[in-house]
Hints:
The chain is of the alpha+beta class. 55% of the residues lie in helices and 10% in strands. The protein has helices at residues 2-16, 77-89, 91-111, 166-232, 238-272, 307-327, 373-439, 445-479, 492-495; strands spanning 117-120, 123-128, 134-137, 140-143, 147-159, 333-344, 356-365. The longest helix is centred in the middle third of the chain and has 67 residues, at 166-232. The chain starts with a helix and ends in a 13-residue tail after the last helix.
Amino acid sequence: MTTCRMPIALATALVLLPMSGCRVGPKYQRPPALAQAPPTTYKESPQNFAADGSGWKVAQPQDAMLRGKWWEIYNDPELNALEEKVSIDNQNIKQAFASFMEARTLIAQARSQLYPTIGVGPGYTRSENSANTGSSTGSGTVSTNRQTNLISLPFDVSWEPDLWGRIRNQIRAEQYNAQISAADLENVRLSEQANLAAYYFQIRGQDALQAILNETVANDQKSLDYTRAQYDTGIGAEISVVEATNTLQNAQAAATNLGVARAQYEHAIAVLIGTNPSSFSVPVKPLNATPPTIPIGIPSQLLERRPDIAASERSMAAANAQIGVATAAFYPTVTISASAGLESSVWKRLFDWSSRFWSVGPSISETIYEGGLRRATVQQYTEAYNGTVAGYRQTVLTAFQQVEDYLASVRILTQQVEQQKAAEVSARRFVELETTRYQTGIDPYINLVTAQNTLLSDQQALAAIHTQEMTASVQLIVALGGGWDSTQLPTPAQVSERLTPAETTIQR
């Protein structure tokens, strides 16, 4: 009885040991992201510049955050429709999603190592022995049957218990890598959505410039007609006609040139939404939006809002798990193998009970000397982990830099827009006064041209700054992480779920 219990007890221990939590290597603890706690407010927050008259306010309460479809904050139905198409048809997002699905399959591959490998290898062999072999007697060699058949149906089982957590550490590493891929997917999605919004406002800015230049061309045409009429009646000089003609021609050329940038932005949007640029167009509509009230939250929330920070943090966890995988190489490897099946020289007796065979037994292997390879491998993965820590902290610092950059950009550009509007009003009044002085013969036509060019320059500057202001607001939203937060990152258990048939379908 005792001899029977010992193999059973040993087998039970080997089965339960991989599940008992014996796993070598360092336990992962998330390192601090910054040397000191983040401040309670951003340095460039508009609330710290209340007296500058910038006109841009932050949302209340202070810790409010964007959620979900962040682009809806602009209240533009056309932008909303385009953003929905990006989420569905953008090829870069689809590529990132496929990479995420691939990362999930690597978890299943790693987990498969926890289980035995079972194989079957049926075979048939017919052989003939040498005539000079057989049983030896006093009178010579007795010949035996030279031709034999061997029919076999073996089943082989091999299992390597995960005694030291090598496989479990590899599974954890693949789970963390899948989480990295999920965060990368969200980062690509946010980037593509932001590119679309930026291109959209750039197009609207081009439309605003086009409206300005179209108006300028119309006014220059009127000035040319008036100047030519004065010349034809002998009141004006030919030089005034030439100046008016040149002014009109320059305005026409500038208006034509705007089509280049608009067409390129339109084509870029088509690619973002997965549409052939040849069959896509954006209706003309000048930019008349203003930056919305953007909830910027508080600095301590930023670590949980950006997918790139989440990906960088998961990289540390994956690198830490790889140290455990390398450390397991210092410990012996146990392999349990078994083989059983049927074997016979004739087909009709293959499935007889007497045709059975079996063998079972464990083996243990341990490397005695390898010239420091295992220690060097552990050191390699340790330094790789240290590198991910530095990369994580750099990602966090860059995130804070970007938020501060675009907070300053939106605040300052909003203030500049108001100042430029005042300059445009002054320039328009300048043109009105100079037109009167020219028509009454007080000033030459060149003075009117100067006033018109001043107005055009101020109008173009205002349209450009306004466009820059809107795109800066998009960049600020991206710097804040859009509508994403770390609760949307799938857990290790979720990324380990079996893929559905729809997720494994080959794309045609």
